[in-house]
Amino acid sequence: MVADHDVLDEYDVLVVGGAGVDTIVRVDALRVPEGDSVGVPPVHDYLGHTGSGVALSCHALGLRVKFLDFLGDDAQGRLVLDEFARAGLDFSHLVSPAGTPRGVNLVDPQGRRFSFYDGRHPAELRLPRSFYLPYLERARHVHLSIVNHNRDLYPDIESLGRPSSTDLHDWDGHNPYHRFYALASDLVFLSDAAVRERREEVMRGILSEGRAEVVVVMAGADGCYLLTRDEHRAAGRGGGVRHFPAVRPPRPVVDSNGAGDAFVSGFLHARLAGRRVEECVRAGLAAGAHACTGVGTHTAFITAGELAERCGWESRENGHFVGQ
Length: 324
Description:
- This protein has 324 residues and is α/β, with parallel strands linked by helices.
- It has one domain (50-97, 125-306): UDP-N-acetylmuramoyl-L-alanine:D-glutamate ligase.
- 31% of the residues lie in helices and 22% in strands.
- The protein contains 10 helices and 13 strands.
- The protein has helices spanning 50-60, 75-87, 129-136, 154-160, 176-184, 199-209, 229-233, 259-272, 277-291, 304-311, and strands spanning 11-16, 20-26, 44-48, 65-71, 90-95, 102-107, 113-117, 139-144, 164-167, 187-191, 214-218, 224-228, 242-244.
- The strands form 2 sheets. The protein has a 9-stranded mixed sheet with strand order 5-4-1-8-9-10-11-12-13, with helices on both faces. It has a 4-stranded mixed sheet with strand order 3-2-6-7.
- Helix 1 (50-60) crosses helix 8 (259-272), helix 8 packs antiparallel against helix 9 and helix 9 crosses helix 10.
- GO terms for molecular function: kinase activity.
- Residues 13-145, 201-299 form the Carbohydrate kinase PfkB domain.
- Pfam families: PfkB.
C-alpha cells in the first residue's frame, strides 16, 4: 500500500546540485606509465557526477524525485538533458555561463577509479531562492551535493523542518569547504579514502559539532562504518562505531563509478520507509554493490524489487515507495 502523504509533499527527495558528464578512461593501473602516451580502450562520455547518481538511483527505486542544478548551454548539457528525459527524471535547471561540469575518471581492471573533476562553476554562483524554494517546500527530504551554489538552502531547510543529507566524498576531516556541509546536514556520508585511521575522530567531530543524527563512512570493498548520535553519546557505556561488511554484488565488479551515490539512494529509500538504521545501511551496501556491475557512470541501477530481495524484505514493498 502506498503511503498517504500530505498533499504538499509532492517529492520524496529533492536533490540539489551535482549534474555533469564523466569521460571514462579504462587503464591497466591507476598510475602514470613511462613515456608520454599509452593506448587505451575506446573512451566514452557518460552522464555523471554525484547529484545525477543520487537522483537517478532514487528514481529507479520508485521514489518521487526532483533534481535542481545549473547546466551549460553546450553539448555536455544536452547530453545530460537527453539522458534525464530518457530516464523520466524530473529535472529543472538554470543556465550557467561557465558551462556543464566535466570529469575524467580513470578506471582499472578491478573497477577502482580516480577522478579528475573540473568544478567549473564560479565561487559566487548561487541558485536563486525564487528558483529552489517552491520545490523545497514540497519535499520530504533534501539531499545537497557539495557544489557550493546550493549552500544558501540550509536556512530554509531548517526553517521548514526538512531533514537533509550530504555526501562529503573524500573529505580529509579538515577542509572547511566540506566542513560547512558536514555540520549543517542531518545525514552525513563520506568516503574512507582520506580519513582511514582518523575515521572515528572525524565521525565523532561531525556529531559533536553539527546537527547530524547519523554519520556513515563508506569504505568500498571493506563495507562501511556507522555512528549515530545516540551511540556517540553512549561512548562511555560501550557505544561506538560499528562496521558493516560489504554486500556481494550480483555480478562481477567492473566499475566503481557511482557506487557511493547508489549507497546514498539505497539508504534514503529505506530511511524514508521508516526502517531501522541497520536496515538502511544494508540497503545502501546492496545498492552500492549493484552499481559496480555496470560499465561507466550511472549505468546500473538497482530496482525496489531487487533491493527488497537482496535485503530480505517482504515482496509487498517491491515497486514504488511504500511507507511504514
